[in-house]
Amino acid sequence: xxxxxxxxxxxxxxxxxxxxxxxxxxxxxxxxxxxxxxxxxxxxxxxxxxxxxxxxxxxxxxxxxxxxxxxxxxxxxxxxxxxxxxxxxxxxxxxxxxxxxxxxxxxxxxxxxxxxxxxxxxxxxxxxxxxxxxxxxxxxxxxxxxxxxxxxxxxxxxxxxxxxxxxxxxxxxxxxxxxxxxxxxxxxxxxxxxxxxxxxxxxxxxxxxxxxxxxxxxxxxxxxxxxxxxxxxxxxxxxxxxxxxxxxxxxxxxxxxxxxxxxxxxxxxxxxxxxxxxxxxxxxxxxxxxxxxxxxxxxxxxxxxxxxxxxxxxxxxxxxxxxxxxxxxxxxxxxxxxxxxxxxxxxxxxxxxxxxxxxxxxxxxxxxxxxxxxxxxxxxxxxxxxxxxxxxxxxxxxxxxxxxxxxxxxxxxxxxxxxxxxxxxxxxxxxxxxxxxxxxxxxxxxxxxxxxxxxxxxxxxxxxxxxxxxxxxxxxxxxxxxxxxxxx
Amino acid sequence: xxxxxxxxxxxxxxxxxxxxxxxxxxxxxxxxxxxxxxxxxxxxxxxxxxxxxxxxxxxxxxxxxxxxxxxxxxxxxxxxxxxxxxxxxxxxxxxxxxxxxxxxxxxxxxxxxxxxxxxxxxxxxxxxxxxxxxxxxxxxxxxxxxxxxxxxxxxxxxxxxxxxxxxxxxxxxxxxxxxxxxxxxxxxxxxxxxxxxxxxxxxxxxxxxxxxxxxxxxxxxxxxxxxxxxxxxxxxxxxxxxxxxxxxxxxxxxxxxxxxxxxxxxxxxxxxxxxxxxxxxxxxxxxxxxxxxxxxxxxxxxxxxxxxxxxxxxxxxxxxxxxxxxxxxxxxxxxxxxxxxxxxxxxxxxxxxxxxxxxxxxxxxxxxxxxxxxxxxxxxxxxxxxxxxxxxxxxxxxxxxxxxxxxxxxxxxxxxxxxxxxxxxxxxxxxxxxxxxxxxxxxxxxxxxxxxxxxxxxxxxxxxxxxxxxxxxxxxxxxxxxxxxxxx
Lengths: 488, 488
Prior knowledge:
The structure is a homodimer.
Chain A: H1 6-19, H2 32-39, H3 43-55, E1 59-62, E2 66-69, E3 90-91, H4 96-103, H5 113-117, H6 126-154, H7 171-183, E4 194-196, H8 199-210, E5 216-221, H9 225-233, E6 237-244, E7 248-249, H10 251-260, E8 263-268, E9 271-273, E10 278-279, H11 282-294, E11 298-302, E12 326-331, E13 343-346, H12 351-362, H13 367-378, H14 381-407, E14 413-414, E15 422-426, H15 437-442, E16 448-449, E17 462-466, H16 473-486
Parallel strand pairs in A: 5-6, 5-8, 8-11, 11-12
Antiparallel strand pairs in A: 1-2, 3-6, 4-13, 6-7, 9-10, 12-13, 14-15, 15-17, 16-17
């Protein structure tokens, strides 16, 4: 953090204040003069921070009056192009581009695989050395994790390899998970969890137990393509519910859809949903839970980004679940490592079915990995890592926002999420990001076109951009290359 | 092997001779006198060995003539009680006992979990010290494997945790697999394989891509309960095809079933099928491949015991597959460790669908585990381990056979497999092993009742017994306890 500029620190402090309601929507921020005196900062620094907030669409500058807090606290207003109406349920067909994107590590990196995994050649520049520092801090956590898993591997009893893991997974790890979720308002115990091979497998299990072939499932639009893929493979029908880049799934649209169709499950990402980074307000959460009860519908909660909130960890939807209709799905892939292949599911009323289905389709999970993880959690290594990881992601989000502000055309709009790993970018109507996929790839740039996030023909002029990786020179160049490709 | 008795060495040599056709079916073995002279052994030793072969049902003693080789070279004749006719396809319903058994590590150990994982208290007795020696030799392989996986874990590049494994799995590991299968007559390359989370997941993928809900699947009877469970969960119908404890699935019965019903897939375990340990003769293999082509049916080959042949590794069915209709499924769980959670599938014409479905339901596998495994294979660690493991399993099979011969009632019959980890035991008609499950469990004995291996009401008087673990005093006591329970 030592490399953070004064204006950035002020900006962060202001953001926290806005998010924490120190200044309500419509309220005036302290004047530049007041702020200079209060924070012992130069006028240039304060102005820079205020203008950045304005550029993000968080505050509005009123001539001669000052800066006022705008309603959408964490985004430029990204309109919902093309999906403000709900289309009748239909089978899912997703283009092969999704498979290509998924096979390239879900395209959280704009650089194609091999290129990205090499350390950047520009590591002597100031920017790159900052990136390295950030990366080192975060890697310290991974190294500690690996030591923990390595210890578990070495300490396995001699003939442990003759036995399978218990069907629900390692009990110590499940106890650790239960403890974490109790912090976030969920009254859960180890027995409520079932360990899986990752969040994607949890979502698969959730859909398998709550739906039958041909059933209708509601999803966010734009929403995670992995879910659309699952629906397609399981022969389920999809109804896409409009989701705001700021406040996520629109509960009123869902209510109307429920009146029309027999929707058996709704997949929702309450915290930092991909691709937008939206966060469900409390009121929406309550509405969703009521609808689930009213229509006897499963709420499949994708909680994979929950731990990555820059301003704290929002309570999961599961915390308010009184009737066991929320199926909580998550994993360590986004918050810790994609290589552990350990996720979990808390399936409420479907718990026994899930346990059975997991046993039958997967048999077991790796015990030493679970044991290593459990120790890592118990020793506080995970919390330490999360603090660094969130800080790093916030810095990287800022790098990306700044870069877009400075280098990209003025007519783009994007969300500025307060957590997660990605933002949603809207380009002028004429741009077709799906059509540009191949051209970008041929120049070593992997993009996730907006169309992937819907099974209808929406979001052709949109794009998900990730800030999971430091914005090295190589990635800046890739973004510039992409700009060139998209402007043709 | 230093602890092996002379009669055991002779018996092994004779077994090899019979299996290798040194003496054909119906031929007379050398007389006791000839054998004594030839092998420099006492008459008692030779007689002991001959009588053991007789007890196994491998040779027949004809008064005044000598010992003659019998037709079934690797078993006591275990009749197919109750399943010699094919019953019409039906949905699968399997009792909760299966879930209980699966949750107890698939009951390859007659001792309940915790008890078994403790080292036996009787380790000072001669028998136990023999077991320990055997176990140590096998554990050396596991320790080497763990070192290899640990090295892979430590050598991961700093930010590797940000990337998912490639969809088909680690390329080096797939190349190693392809090389192994080329040894066994399969002309395969790394591109033909997809890494999975174990054989059970491979079977799941195979059924998902080759069948649709409601389709009919043929299975061996008796056959693996994990497959019956999968069929139930996927809403598939089962038709059980009689399988001999010696020669496995009866191809003629399958042919008749195919004339009657539209069977989309047949799950078959050509090598050391559980529960019997049967091995498909070449003629049956050829018939199966012809039927698959004639009826456009998928042959799902469960190859999980293939590497555990005491007299060598039988070629997989896949070796003869010219039309891509064989889906080869396997893993390292039986031959190496159940805790790796690494399996594979070579799905022939369904390869792309499998890759896609794996990506969508599991996303990825753990790279460091795959890398560690790949090195272990490359360095020859796996082959060394397999040699020890087969030797150990053969000794343990003999321990179990001897124990049954000496301690159990004369009216039992059992198969004596030449590979794998389990044998099939048939008790008198009146015995109900399923009913005895609870009573046995209450005394710390876990059994796998015969009924689990069929979805009809067959095999109530049968039992699978495993020789995966050394027959320690504790396990001998458990077997005696079981005898008591079953005789009530």
